[in-house]
Amino acid sequence: MKISGKIAVTAKFVLILTALVLAGCAAGQQMISESKGVNQTASQSTTPPGPVNQSAKTDRPEVKTLPAPKPELGVPAAEAKTADNKEKVVYLTFDDGPNSHFTGRVLDVLARKNAKATFMVVGKNVILNPDVIRRIISEGHGISNHSFSHDYNKIYVSPEAFIADLEENNVVLAPYTGKPVMVFRAPGGPQKLSPALRNKLHRGGYTSVGWNIASADSDPNGITRKQLYDNIVNGLEIVESMNRTPIVLMHDGTQLTTTEARPGSATAAYIQSREAVVAALPSVIDHFKAKGYSFGVVDQHTPPAW
Ligand SMILES: [Zn+2]
Q1: Contacts of 174 (CB under 8 A, 6+ apart)
Q2: Which residue, 52, 118, 281, 289, could crosslink 298 as a Cys pair with Cβ 3.0–4.6 Å?
Q3: By C-alpha distance, which of 111, 118, 90, 141 is closest to 292?
Q4: How far apart are the CA of 211 and the centre of ligand 1, in A?
Q5: Cα(67) to centroid(ligand 1), Å
Q6: pLDDT tens readout for residues 147-156
Q7: Is cis: bond before 71, omega within 30 of 0?
Q8: Percentage of the chain surpassing pLDDT 70?
Q9: What's the 65 CA to ligand 1 centre distance in angstroms?
Q10: Whole-angstrom Cα distance, residue 97 to residue 133?
Q11: Does 164 have pLDDT greater than 60?
């Protein structure tokens, strides 16, 4: 590889890492809106949902956008195989549900488009939405463990606390899945896992699943359908240039007490972003189909994001 090529790849890697860090798990930010309100930072954690009409945060982090996509030169519209003839698989993932407002609409789109996805579910929301979790499973989508509480202050106190929270979620999920869900996504992302916690999880048979394409749908300012679509299209270009299997982070979101929110509030931005996910999803799926991808369901064999 030429030096200039190395620089370009390095620049892309820095860019995508920046995007990933900014993306976070989003749930930390998301659950701000429905739990604590104005003075909570993005990295702080969650409590059960409370009133939703709260003021928007004023200390919002800057959200950077990825560069505009380059035009494809001489590349066929649909390439069913990669250069080494492997099947092209994309993993669409939705975090923090299930919920009664958006998860069903996401499922409707997936059914209409004949695409599969994986839902990173939170136990406290599973309890509230048994019909939705049943539907996710009956329609052939994947389930991953996203903790019971999604409470950073609780789960990241110690390795034991984290695993106890995963196990609590598995108790909730057992009637639906019939077995423990050992594939998990760490709330806040894999970067929140300490080496000691990683080791303990590995010894316990757990498999971490991250992401390499951030839709940035956890932007506290809210995101539009077009922004979300562009983020994924641009992210895919980077991931493909690095020969990775695309794993896309989106959020169907946590259970809200209502979808009525004061304009300009954090909750309104949160709802706007969930609407953007539902609205953009058909185009996102079409884009992956046009590029020859099939839609995989996350399990312990899913390639690591990085
Ligand atoms: Zn989350």
Answers
A1: 180
A2: 118
A3: 90
A4: 12
A5: 26
A6: 999 999 999 9
A7: no
A8: 72
A9: 21
A10: 9
A11: yes
Domain boundaries, the chain: 3-37+79-295
pLDDT average, residue stretch 96-116: 98
* Structural tokens at position 190: 């894999």
Nearest-angstrom CA–CA distance, 243 and 208? 20
**Residue 191 CA, ligand 1 centroid: distance in Å:** 13
pLDDT tens for each residue of 63-73 = 333 444 333 33
Structure confidence at residue 86 (pLDDT):
76
81 alpha carbon – ligand 1 mean position (Å)? 32
Q: Of all residues in the chain, what percent are helix, strand and coil, respectively (each to 5)?
A: 45, 10, 45
3-state DSSP assignment of residue 88: coil
Q: Alpha-carbon distance 22 to 189, whole Å?
A: 11
Q: What is the pTM of this model?
A: 0.78
The CATH label, of 3.40.605.10, 3.20.20.140, 3.30.1490.100, 3.20.20.370, for the domain at 3-37+79-295 is 3.20.20.370
Q: What value does the mean pLDDT take over residues 34-43?
A: 30
What tokens appear for 135 in the block? Answer: 């539907």
The C-alpha atoms of residue 209 and residue 304 are separated, in whole angstroms, by 7
CB 109 within 8 A of CB 78: no
CB-neighbour burial class of residue 195 (10 A; exposed 0-12, middle 13-18, buried 19+): exposed
